[in-house]
Amino acid sequence: MFWQQLINGITLGATYALIALGYTMVYGIIQLINFAHGEIYMIGAFVGVMAVIVFKVNIFIALLMAIAVCILIGVSVERIAYKPLRRSTRLAPLISAIGVSIFLQTLMTLIAGPQAVGFPQVIDDQLYHIGSVTVSKVQLIILFLASVMMVGLQLIIKYVRIGKAMRAASEDYDTASLMGIDVNRVISFTFAIGSALAAAGGVMVGMYFNSIHPLMGVMAGLKAFCAAVLGGIGSIPGAMLGGLFLGVAEVAGVALGYGGYRDAIAFTLLILVLLFKPTGLLGRPIQRKV
Amino acid sequence: MLCVENLHYSYGAINALSGISFQVNEGEIVALIGANGAGKSTTLLNIAGLLHPQSGLIKYQGKDISKLPPHKVVEAGISLVPEGRRVFSRMTVLENLEMGAYLKKNRAEIKESIENVFDRFTRLKERRTQLAGTLSGGEQQMLAIGRALMSKPKLLLMDEPSMGLAPMLVQDIFTIAKEINQSGTTILLVEQNAYMALSVAHHAYVLETGAIVLQGTAEEMANNPEVKKAYLGE
């Protein structure tokens, strides 16, 4: 029972972590909470479904198509809605982000209709039994893909030139530009990576729960945002940890009989963590530049 | 090499530079000296592209660079050692140097530049895998200088390199500046420590509340009674 719930929790948490990474990376560089990020995840799920239903492609091709479309949208959103506001107050891009979020929700409702769409069964429902634990094939694929993506992200950040530039820019934007780093390109790249992870999360959640709808990004986005803050906003390992923590806590809550409070668990946890550790689990103490 | 003409800059309503002009000839060390708030750093930030002048020209090798973004200025061959060092404290010494060579594509060339920096600053070599934030102030200043050299600039801008350093290290920093200059890099140096700046510079300009009030060779400046009184404490 315990191990079973743990696996279920980690699967759910892995999808939260994928979305949370986008929040935390963007915040790390331009100190913006990108409230439209949940919608990128939702669009990823829809593109995945359309690719499977309309183009009849294999789920992995559908995943790649969702990633491609979301990168395009994520980067465009930054160019159109955030970049012109970069030198204004911090509140302006935040409000712009909320605007983009509502716009994308409404747009998708117009295109796909307000009702939920069933995600076609693309993976056979084979179950694997390991001791007393039962794991579905979908769960295994989610866990595998999410791990590959998170490890890949860490490698890019640590060893690849643009990844190092991301770290430099998130630490000191102006000084990074003095190194010859085109900071605008680094920001676009950050949005591209974040959107790709969210798209993958959207397709995976669609497969896992078999249902998607235009407002699915709202709650998922909020929870992933909680996960990012829980882990320490701006911290990449923090977002991963926060996502997993939240997923496990949510599943545990449901297993203990508090299913009705499912969505409240994330926010309660957020409040508790912030009360005792305002910078989040892996967050750094806030340093003010003079 | 660098020719600044009638440069105006204001932070909102506060006028920082009211039409300054000066030039830096190839191969020289030129010092901009002046008190706190005279506009020295503002001048360097305008040249480096982090600020853009309201009016005036910044000509570098004949071309106006006053509207270029910072990364294009670096590409043109100008590198800034920022005030307060500004090393990437959560990155290692080696990674900081790699960032300095961001525009260089040739790995062998980058490696050679890193070796050159390590030859000049042996302390950095010992600490190459350490996070820059754990270095002492003097080591951070050396890292900031080494990092700026990684792009192989023709013109090096140094903003208050001696600030906050122990007197012995201040001496070292100016010796290093002189060595860098002798190996072929032109330097524009901004300093409150007028005595040290004038001891290494060829030409100097004195900045007061956004305007140049005196100029000449470093020797003339060091012997000028006004400079002596106001900046050399005699």
Summing up helix and strand content along with how strands pair, one would put the structural category of chain A as mainly alpha
CATH T-level topology of chain A: ABC transporter involved in vitamin B12 uptake, BtuC
Number of domains of chain A: 1
Number of domains of chain B: 1
Query: Share of helix among residues of chain A?
Result: over 70%
Q: Strand content of the residues of chain B, in percent?
A: 25-35%
Please give the radius of gyration of chain A in angstroms: 19 Å
Mean of all residue-level pLDDT scores of chain A: 93
Largest beta sheet of chain B, briefly?
Answer: 6 strands, mixed
Number-wise, the strands of chain B total 10
Portion of residues in helices of chain B?
A: 25-40%
Count of helix runs of chain B = 10
Number of helices of chain A: 11
The topology string of helices and strands of chain B comes to EEEHEEHEHHHHEHEHEEHH
H-E order of chain A: HHHHEEEHHHHEHHH
Q: Which structural category do the helix and sheet elements of chain B fall into? A: alpha/beta
Cα Rg of chain B: 17 Å
Multimer state:
heterodimer
Distance between the termini of chain A: 53 Å
Number of strands of chain A: 4
Give an account of the 3D structure.
The complex is a heterodimer of chains A (290) and B (234). Chain A is mainly alpha-helical. Chain A has one domain (2-276): Orthogonal Bundle (ABC transporter involved in vitamin B12 uptake, BtuC), CATH 1.10.3470. Chain A has eleven helices and four strands. Chain A has helices at residues 2-30, 37-53, 59-82, 91-112, 137-159, 161-171, 173-178, 183-209, 216-231, 236-255, 262-276, and strands at residues 117-118, 127-130, 133-136, 211-212. In chain A, β2 and β3 form a beta hairpin. The longest helix of chain A is centred in the N-terminal third of the chain and has 29 residues, at 2-30. The N and C termini of chain A lie far apart (53 Å). Chain B is of the alpha/beta class and 234 residues long. Chain B has one domain (2-231): 3-Layer(aba) Sandwich (Rossmann fold), CATH 3.40.50. Chain B has ten helices and ten strands. Chain B has helices at residues 40-48, 70-76, 93-100, 107-120, 122-126, 137-149, 167-182, 194-200, 218-223, 225-231; strands at 2-11, 14-24, 29-34, 55-60, 63-64, 78-81, 155-159, 186-191, 203-208, 211-217. In chain B, the strands form two sheets. A six-stranded mixed beta sheet of chain B has the order 6-7-8-3-9-10, with helices on both faces. A four-stranded antiparallel beta sheet of chain B has the order 2-1-4-5, with helices on one face. In chain B, α3 packs parallel to α6 (137-149). Chain B is globular and about 45 Å long. The chains are: A mainly alpha (290), B alpha/beta (234). Chains A and B meet through α6 and α7 of A and α2 and α3 of B.
